[in-house]
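Chapter review. Work through the record for Probable GTP-binding protein EngB before attempting the end-of-chapter questions.
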Amino acid sequence: MEINKSEFVKSAVVEKDYPEFNNIVEFSFIGRSNVGKSSLINSLTKRKSLARTSKTPGRTQLINYFLINDKIHFVDLPGYGFAKVPDAVKKNWGKTIESYLISNREKIVFLLLDLRRVPSNEDMEMLKWLEHFGIEYYIIFTKADKLSNNEKFKQLKEIRKKLVFKNEDVFFYSSLKNTGREELLNFIGKRIAEK
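Structure tokens for Probable GTP-binding protein EngB:
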């Protein structure tokens, strides 16, 4: 799949404010604060600032919708697990994410995990949650350029102590170098064709 057109549609918090559905498939990106969700969307669309990025974790507090090629949505969900955010704000983010995930929108979720870190308890909770609700999801390991092949091998060994997966079932991505872009877009194109 090639992305020829991408535009920001709107931000929302509650379901009544989501964009009209019209059988549009949504590919949603979720993960810890600062895992690289917005950067990944920018990399996929080849637009530097389509999704707003920040060095400060916890900036995405709304659900941001992007229309891709006039036929699918990319959805940038708020990050979770950022310690410096007040509990009340965290709780609201949790509700915002939860109401989106349990909505009846036709969605495929990409859970982003930083390849340099062992999945946190919040990451594991999110995985359980996605499985509990029977949501179709796939794992993307971000920041793949930050590790050498040797470090990557060691790190995957550590990650597998918490998480069971086959390498061919996950994506490895670097927004900086666009590594993994083609594979992910091909996968998205294939899933659209199956719908």
